[in-house]
Amino acid sequence: MNHATTPPGGSSPGSGTSPQGPDGPDLPGRPAAGVAAHRQWAGRQAPAHSDLSPTDPGAGHLPGQETPVAPPDDQQPRKPRAGRNLPAAIGVGVGLGAVIVASLLFVKVLFLVVVMAAVGMGVWELTSRLAERKDIRVPQIPLVAGSAAMLAAGYAFGPEGSAAALALTALVVLVWRMREAPEGYLRDVTAGIFTAFYVPFLATFVALMLHADDGPRRVLLFLLITVCSDTGAYAVGFKFGRHKLAPRISPGKTREGLAGGVALSMVAGALGMQLMIEGGAWWQGLVLGGCAAVVATLGDLAESMIKRDLGIKDMGTLLPGHGGIMDRLDSLLPTAPVSWLLFAAFVGA
Q1: Low complexity bias located where (predicted)?
Q2: Which side of the chain, N or C, has fewer Cβ within a 10 Å radius?
Q3: Is 271 part of any domain?
């Protein structure tokens, strides 16, 4: 006895017969009644695809249908290449520039107070990120106080004063950390001394430039060439950048951008040295601008390494469109000693 299941309509799927349906003989272009009944029967026998989620590629598509594919890349919405909020960045930059220029033009000591505030906040940002991401407990209070002391000593007593203040700050960090358990002592004090050198000590060279008779103009030119380096690199890199400068450290930087930053900084240096600095020459400004642009880029890359090690994008959020204070000081800090040295070599300290 044959127990095979027979589909409705009286014929097996492979019999090749197509009996007439109740409506009469089969017509061309219309499936036979037996074939239609077999399709309905086969549909009832097929397993349900209930295990497909709406996100599966085959969900919502019958067998034999093509699965839709994503549109090509050139039809996908593109993200803006610029990584900044430009209106906010420009507004904050103009505001900071106004504060700096106003303090430089009226009272030199007022500008020194502005630098102390910026450096103190930068130290606080860096040490806070070290604690959050690496559990490195750097003594913040002696570092912030030592930052102000280094800047004041550098302005009043020159390089000897800033060096002495750095040494005293390091000693206070060593003693301050003794109040806690010895576990991690070497790690914490090492990070503290690094912070004291990296942020406030490098900033003391701004105070040394400010101490000269034409100090405000020197500081203004130092800021101008550093900003031109960053602006030229950003503009040229955004428009023409094709070859990565250091993809493992800062994927957004390009060689074309570096060339643009060096060129604009050299032009600004030549004009500024000739017009702003007594006894300065245009060729000295070319040297000053070129060196400043290269060192500013290296400083930016150095902080990018620190941020990558910490697993963060910005040091803070205090400045909209820029990040934190340290995200603006990263290129200024290493450029300060180079600018001070070249000013001293060209026109005297």
Answers
A1: 1-24
A2: N
A3: yes
Residues 134 and 223 in one domain: no
Cα radius of gyration rounded to whole Å, the chain: 35
Query: Does a structural domain hold residue 242?
Result: yes
Q: For 8-60, what is each residue's pLDDT tens digit?
A: 444 444 444 444 444 444 444 445 555 454 455 455 554 444 444 444 444 44
pLDDT for residue 212 is more than 80? yes
Provide the number of structural domains found in the chain. 2
Nearest to 272 by CA among 328, 346, 330: 346
> What is the mean predicted confidence (pLDDT) over 274-286?
95
Report how far residue 254's alpha carbon sits from residue 243's, in angstroms, rounded to the nearest whole number.
Answer: 5
Kindly state the tokens that stand for 295.
Answer: 């060192």
Whole-number Å distance between alpha carbons of 260 and 209: 27
Q: Per the structure block, which two tokens stand in for 323?
A: 């990040």
**Domain ranges, residue 172:** 104-211
Q: What is the pTM of this model?
A: 0.73
Alpha helical stretches, state H, 180-214: 185-196, 202-211
Tokens of 56: 């599966």
